[in-house]
Amino acid sequence: MPEDKMEIRLDADVFHKRAKHFLSIWRVSKKHLKLANFNARFESSQNKEANGELFQGVNSILVVVGEIMEEYPYQKSTAIQQWLLGYEFTDTLILFTQDKIHFIVKEKRAEVFEQLRQGDRQVPIEIHKRSKDPSHNQTLFEQIISKISEGEQKRVGLLLKDKTSGSFVQEWQNVYKNFKTNFEEVDIASGIAAVLAVKDDDELKTTRMACKISTAMMYRFINVVSSVIDEEKEISHEQLSEDIENMLYTKDEKWLTSQKSLQDVDFNRTDVCYAPIIQSGGVYDFKPSAQSNTDKLHDGTILCSLGVRYKSYCSNIGRTILIDPTKEQEKNYEFLLDIQRRTLELLKDGQKIGDIYSRVMNFVKNKRPDLADKFVKSLGHGMGIEFRESAYNLTQRNTKYLKAGMVLNLFIGFIDLENPKSTDEKSKTYSLWVIDTVKVSNSSSQLLTEGNRALDSICFSLKDGNESDHEAKKENEQPKKPLETKRNTNRKSTVLRTKFRSEEKDDESQDQRRKKHQEELAIRKQADGLARFSEKSNEKTSQHKAVFRSFESYKRDTALPKEVKDLKIIVDSKNESIILPVFGFAVPFHISTLKNVNKSEEGEYVYLRLNFMTPGQATGKKEDNPFDDPNANFIRAFTYRSTDPLLSEIYKKIIELKKAAAKRETERKEREDLVDQGKLVEMKDNKLPAGRRPTHRLSDVFVRPGLEGKRVPGELEIHENGLRYHSHRTTQKLDILFSNIKHLFFQPCDNELIVLLHIHLNNPIIHGKKKTKDIQFYREASDVQFDETGNRKRKYRYGDEDELGAEQEERRRRTLLNKEFKNFAEKIAELSEGSVEVDIPFREIGFQGVPFRTNVLLQPTTECLVHLTDPPFLVVPLADIEIAHLERVQFGLKNFDLVFIFKEYSRPPVHINTIPMNKLENVKDWLDSVDINFYEGPQNLNWAQIMKTINSDPADFFEQGGWSFLKLHNENEDSAASSDSASEYMQSEDSYEESSSDDSSLDEDASDVSSGSESEESDESAPDWDEHEEKARRADERKHGTNRGDESEDDRGKSKKYRR
């Protein structure tokens, strides 16, 4: 960041930490020692670079910075300044010696550099003040040169490729040139690059924020391009590049506030790394010097890349947008993503860069040899304060080694591919790329830029059903024609819905856009279902069937109890068996074979009837119990009669044994799907001093579900491969591995009583003797010392000042709580090396509903729909949803229901009831925005029966049209509802009388239908309507004592209108 008049604060701790690191690498390089002896970050692979002498044995290092040169934004001289000081200072000279750092700065700026003397364990520094007196400055420069002259070898390290200019540089050069012949100048750019290549935690945090900004801008760009193509606007690459760049400079308030991940960004310290590059129309350039040209945007293959600097740290992202791609183009793009996944596995600590490129190239040649010559010659480069760290170009010739903590710009692409099937000349040549910012770690690399990478996110279709290349789309898009006809008919109508044509057009276009998108999703869902449940894969998707379990009471006769000699009923709880006397033999039966037991008394006799499991019985369960051989002979029941009162005791023992066996069976079924998540690796001794706890921990938090016993707070700690929760007041502990975490949610305490971290697991664990997939850690946001009722602590407070102070303290406390929990969640995501990401609920688009028994607030997140405030918790991953169905959507109702059907059809659907009708459009927009296909209907459906039918034969279900039956069901219900509503309006008495008088002309037709003259005679003798009217008037006069004729016509009209 260039220096300005604002107050500058230097971080002395960061400066001395990084200065020590820099000097230590320099010393070891000079002595040809292995860097693994002093810094684990530069072990093994760094030895070869050390032997190659990063700094080539120089005695001193000189860095001179003059005026800012806009044409050279990335130089190592300003990069080392930014790395050490956090700012770029003009007209500054820095001399590094083995034991001290010298600064020559302006006299006014010297006060800023004095801040570096703060703190302990300092690196010795000396600040020389430069004035306007040339003779004084010459003396300072000669002193610096004398420092360079010390020692036997007069080798000085310089950044010879950096460009400098300005009066200060010229003044220094005038003095230095007189002594230049006394020194040996050495370029130490590679040494500086090695020092800056590995980022510390603070640098990685800043880089992640820059990547979040880049990701958000790319997401915005894709939306803009889709709108431009959809509306058939003409715009040049150059103009579109300027519009995207202006998003950051103009600080679009509406866009920025909508991005939750960017709320902590200081946009005063953001900048673009380069002007966004946009290419289309068959002309593509992968060179670093490429720029957006003045050609118009072409609706074929569109490439875009953009980079953002945040606090001087760079990020980069690039995506391909495909408009109406062919199958071959989709196949090539999917292969491009496979290459990226393969490369990410190879980018890890200790790998030689040249070997990585060779292995990736071999992967391309083996899988797709036809694309090998089109593959990029470089996989990217190192990145940090400099956008392009050329010492770490990912090419085949680079002999350097990767180290954990490096940040790379990963570039995967194919250039100038041919598309001979295209009828458009500009679409016959296309290119593909995917560019991301990645962090190198010990096992594999981690993507720092997310989203908009999958084919579904970057592929758009503009063709009609008749023009589609896919046969499945042709068949499924044919029903669109009636919709288009209906829409055109509405447009030709002379009756307008609103007073303004533009308003109607905007509303209609938004609704039509959503309908069109839903139709595309439905077509895609149908095609996926047909491919998923094809005949070849039908066996794999068959429903799980119960398996016969064999039970063994005794292995041999000698194991039977001794009491069997008495031929009595014996209940053996140890072996879970009942031994019954049958025709003089003691026959054992396992308790699992017993269905039930009944006892009855008649006189002095006690009857005991034992009923056993047999094939074909109605067991009351969803599935019949399996049998090894259903055709074998079975004993259905035994009945015993006795006068012995011990038979009642035997009955009680059998009941208790049956209950115990049922309980054990239930526990066994609960533990069937439990997966061993492994053991937690605690913080190593070399990273954690003896007797100390982990640095990253969250204190005074409660867990839900709670530990056994009394509710007590505990601590949540981050270890090598997971989390551990424990309390000092109990010996219980809870371990959660990163590999078992599916979703991590942070919910702030804004408008809530608690702040929480919620973990949704991949596989359930046993916690508190119960199986669960959701673990939550929370802390109450309200202060226990603060009494909201006005009693005790507040009864002596008077006036508004105390209340205002308490409110301010409450807000401050909540802000600190949110910050503490959010930082801890981000630390979990960081130390998990990409396996865990933090998700935050969007409260502003939440809606009320009843997922269980109570009405709660349901909040969408990036990947789920959640309710986390109170148990039972609800976490519905969007990736698991097949379709959504909106039920009870009809006029006059205040609420509607929402049902989620999952891709795993054996999983029961999730019902969310009683959602307010005013949230209907919001829910539809949200479902459409996350690409969930939804349908709606006026009634609730029996989903248990529907899913049973689908599971019986999924392939046949999709061959018959799949989920399109919901659309047909909705249309049929709509027509039925309209007829029902008409019949309801016909039920009122007044309307019946009016309709009878209006339809009097139909009496002749009715008489034709009547048979016989008897009905005709009765019609002639029946009183006419005037007589009926007269009788009604007289009845009203007798009842109310008023004359109906006195009523005015207006009053009659009002009363009629009211009755209607």
Structure summarized in a few sentences:
The protein is of the alpha+beta class and 1060 residues long. The chain has 27 helices and 36 strands. The protein has an eight-stranded mixed β-sheet with strand order 24-23-22-21-27-26-25-28, covered by helices on one side. The protein has a six-stranded mixed β-sheet with strand order 4-3-2-1-5-6, with helices on one face. The chain has a four-stranded mixed β-sheet with strand order 7-8-9-14.
Key terms for this structure?
disordered C terminus, disordered N terminus, alpha+beta, coiled coil, eight-stranded mixed β-sheet, globular, six-stranded mixed β-sheet, about 1050 residues, 27 helices
Structure write-up:
With 1060 residues, this protein is of the alpha+beta class. It has an eight-stranded mixed beta sheet with strand order 24-23-22-21-27-26-25-28, with helices on one face. The chain has a six-stranded mixed beta sheet with strand order 4-3-2-1-5-6, covered by helices on one side. Strands 7-8-9-14 form a four-stranded mixed beta sheet. β16 (577-582) and β17 (585-590) form a beta hairpin.
